[in-house]
Specification:
alpha+beta; TIM Barrel; 3 domains; 10-stranded antiparallel sheet; 8-stranded parallel β-barrel; 18% helix; 29% strand; globular; binds (2R,3S,4R,5S)-2-(hydroxymethyl)piperidine-3,4,5-triol
């Protein structure tokens, strides 16, 4: 049984793959956290309750202590770790919830009411969430004002994660304003952890930062109404001394695409309290009597196998239970994308040349990027005018699609459905569709405004416009871009006391769009994108399965971006393209071999001017595509071991091992050529130590234990930015 309620101790045990999560109903009817870590027995562990706090803390009303003192006792809110930190009672830790009733009551004293175990995991209304798994729901309620909270917990037998969320409800007679509505709280019993987060910017997404947790709050967030490139909705807690390969690591990842917050609070009793969810900055939600509010789900991973183990847990969880099942395990399209070869400057003939240049190499999909609609000759016009620009493409898309298909390839098209350009027919007709506060001059981002997707009529427009093009043309791939950040968040459709619902309502609007466009076109392969990888989050993955990782396609910079992204997201979720040199972002030149090896660590493709391809170029691409197909199953299903850290030194290494440990692939990269450089052994990880493996590139057979403990002596080409690849086969 994955979920057990032990009546005698009033303890809930949640047993997932390699982990146990336990909490009890304590003597005062609060849910008290007991344990989260490696699998344990169902013993009475309530002796860990409480803490050693000695502050002057308000007592739980009605609780009488024999000696009349608080010292060392569990008679104060602050003295135990609740499953959800509520507020107003005299608990001074970061609350997960804050309310205000019509009377101005701001207390949520959440007491245990009962539980249910659901064999089928319920979805969340209008929001993406993990599928499958036995689910526990625990009902909590403030017995004075009727405010309620249901806590949902799901465990999996094939991934070392639990999924959690909270549903808040108004069981009182008047309206409640929810000023904070986080998804979870969980307290680790010690503070000696590092906080690992993924920060970045355009073309530098998901760089890794590891800093010590401390007394007080380490907080990351987004206020952009999108998950953003600045900080990913991911946080790992890495036990001091834990490494990539060993030690306790917890990871937290929100299935959410709007403004979020994640916090790690070091407490004076040396616990570390994790919490987070929807950002309470610029947020309130009006909850009428009888209404409820569902928070986004958070996926929490635990591993004793280091940071790598935490990542593999996320990868398994997302492949098995999050990514749209119709994409999981399916061979990915290998794309030639028009953006960097043509930008806005093309016509049908030019596109045909790009296609012809690469046809027959195994590249199987041509994607026509931005610039095909309205009068789109720069980023300053036409978003929302989703009709084909016949000056560039006379007669419409038919001719280029027919040409692509005649070369045995599929046709894909770029859209940016959430946007509206000030210079567009759409804006001239419907200026109110744009997000903009009344009486102010708009502040466009990349020359564009965002559509007010909190409004149903605006969503209907976007859905109909995109679906019309998809219906009228034979389109088999869509790249869905999003190049903006909201400003002046305000909606015509919201009452003044609901304007602070905007950021979350935008997320709900986006998910509605995804449902009605992505899920309504099941035969089309959808790729997410956001000015590169600025919306790379589990919610987007629920719909899209593959996301453009970054506009920075320089192999050197990509080693860091792909390394950081792999902390939470599986390789097949990342789109990685081979682009031209000098690279359009960094001006750096790297060899085609290196660009191929790094770009082939995900869903792959090419983004260069193939119209000028020679037979030799075509042969190079053909060989790269063949090599890619040899490792594709590993990329789809394998376990990732990060063997060399590009943030720590001059190397990068990804080793991918099949689940049955019969085959593996290692890509290693050396940043700079060195004269008389230090001795280097490439790490090998994840093999069966008792199994013999043949490595084709070295023509050597050794025991897994030997490969892993001795490593590989690399013979990198003597040049900067060089790669080597190795294939392991069990013999
Ligand atoms: C940003 C994307 O990341 C690029 O790949 C490209 O599609 C441009 N937008 C087009 O405007």
């Amino acid at each position: 049984m994955a979920i057990t309620y032990q009546e005698s101790t009033k303890t809930f045990f949640l047993d997932g793959k390699g982990l146990t999560y336990a909490f009890c109903v304590n003597d005062f009817d609060y849910l008290e956290h007991l344990y989260f870590g490696k699998t344990i027995g169902h013993d009475d562990i309530r002796y860990v309750r409480g803490c050693g706090g000695t502050d002057n803390n308000p007592k739980i009303p009605g609780v009488k202590m024999e000696n009349g003192y608080n010292y060392g006792a569990i008679d104060c809110y602050q003295y135990f770790a609740p499953e959800i930190v509520f507020s107003g009672t005299g608990d001074y830790r970061e609350p997960a919830v804050q309310i205000r009733t019509e009377q101005g009551d701001r207390i949520s004293d959440l007491l245990y009411e009962g539980y249910e175990i659901l064999p089928q995991k319920p979805g969340i209304n209008g929001m993406p969430s993990m599928r499958d798994g036995e689910t526990l729901v625990v009902h909590l309620k403030d017995r004075v004002n009727g405010f309620g909270c249901d806590l949902y917990y799901t465990v999996y037998d094939d991934a070392g994660v639990i999924a959690r969320r909270a549903v808040y409800s108004n069981g009182g007679a008047g309206t409640v304003m929810l000023n904070r509505a986080y998804s979870f709280s969980v307290a680790l019993p010690e503070i000696d952890y590092d906080v690992l987060t993924l920060h970045g910017a355009w073309a530098a997404e998901r760089h890794v930062q590891r800093i010590p947790a401390h007394y007080g709050v380490v907080s990351i967030d987004s206020k952009r109404t999108t998950s953003s490139a600045s900080l990913n909705p991911f946080m790992a807690l890495v036990k001091k001394g834990a490494t990539e390969d060993a030690g306790d690591v917890y990871g937290v990842n929100l299935i959410y695409s709007s403004s979020f917050v994640l916090k790690a609070e070091g407490l004076n009793d040396d616990r570390l309290l994790l919490t987070g969810g929807i950002n309470d900055f610029d947020f309130t939600w009006k909850l009428l009597p009888g209404a409820y509010f569902e928070t986004p789900e958070v996926v929490i991973s635990y591993s004793s196998d280091g940071i790598g183990g935490m990542s593999r847990n996320f990868h398994d969880a997302y492949r098995n239970h999050l990514i749209n099942p119709r994409y999981v395990g399916k061979k990915r399209p290998i794309v030639i994308n028009s953006w960097e070869s043509a930008y806005f400057n093309f016509n049908t003939e030019r596109l045909k040349q790009i296609v012809d240049g690469v046809a027959g190499t195994g590249v199987d999909t041509f994607v026509l990027d931005d610039g095909w609609y309205g009068n789109r000759n720069s980023e300053f016009s036409s978003l929302g005018d989703w009709w084909v620009d016949e000056k560039k493409l006379p007669g419409g898309l038919g001719e280029i699609i027919a040409h692509v298909n005649s070369r045995g390839m599929k046709f894909g098209l770029w859209f940016e459905p959430e946007m509206i350009s000030p210079d567009s027919d759409l804006f001239r007709t419907h200026p109110d569709y744009a997000i903009m506060a009344p009486g102010r001059e708009g502040s466009p981002c990349r020359g564009q405004y965002m559509l007010d997707l909190t409004r149903e009529d605006v969503r209907d427009f976007a859905v109909n416009a995109v679906n019309k093009i998809l219906k009228e043309n034979h389109i088999e791939y869509v790249k869905w871009d999003y190049n903006s950040n909201v400003s002046q968040s305000w909606s015509l459709g919201l009452a003044p006391d609901q304007q602070m619902e905007f950021a979350h309502r935008y997320a709900l609007g986006v998910y509605d769009l995804f449902e009605r466009i992505v899920n309504a076109n099941p035969d089309i392969f959808f790729e997410g994108c956001s000015a590169g990888g600025a919306r790379f989050d589990p919610a987007v993955l629920y719909y899209f399965s593959q996301i453009w990782t970054s506009d920075d396609t320089d192999a050197e910079e990509r080693t860091k971006i792909q390394y950081g992204t792999s902390m939470a997201y599986p390789l097949m979720a990342m789109t990685c393209h081979v682009s031209a040199v000098p690279n359009h972002q960094t001006r750096r030149s790297t060899s085609i071999a290196t660009r191929g090896d790094i770009a082939h660590l995900g869903g792959t493709g090419y983004e260069l001017d193939t119209s000028a391809f020679t037979d030799e170029d075509r042969e190079t691409v053909r060989k790269q595509v063949d090599k890619y197909h040899e490792v594709e199953d590993l990329l789809l299903w394998g376990d990732l071991y990060r063997t060399e850290d590009p943030f720590a030194g001059g190397y990068f290494g990804f080793m991918i091992v099949s689940k049955d440990k019969q085959s593996a692939h290692l890509t290693a990269y050396k940043r700079l050529a060195e004269c008389n450089g230090p001795i280097k052994r490439l790490k090998v990880r994840g093999l069966d130590p008792k199994q013999m493996y043949y490595v084709k590139e070295l023509d050597m057979t050794m025991l897994g234990a030997t490969w892993m403990n001795v490593g590989i002596k690399p013979n990198f080409p003597f040049e900067d930015f060089a790669t080597l690849t190795f294939t392991f086969k069990a013999v």
